[in-house]
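Sanity check

After download, print the first record. It should look like this:
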Amino acid sequence: MANKAHTATLNRICRKYGLRANSDGQPYDIQTYELIIEVETSASVPEAVKRLDSLPPPVYIAVTNKEGIGYAELQVQGTSIGLLDPQGNVIRPSEHHKFSR
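Expected structure tokens:
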């Protein structure tokens, strides 16, 4: 279920990178032929890591607030999952991927 922070972060990332959000009911917030992005709160990051870790890179988790970045960094350590801040800036790149506008 999306909250205001989730929706705002998702919309910001879509605008920044020219992406389109998936409609409700789709498995990932953003999915293209090139990458997957899930927007998560700090509480939902561990579950997202479990879901995304088995997928081939590039995959990203975008946190909904800057306070959650440190926690999310710890959760994605040892995985190929990249990390985006709430503005869509790359904190940790996913394997073999560079964002471009």
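If your output differs, re-run the checksum step. Summary of this record's structure: The mean pLDDT is 92.
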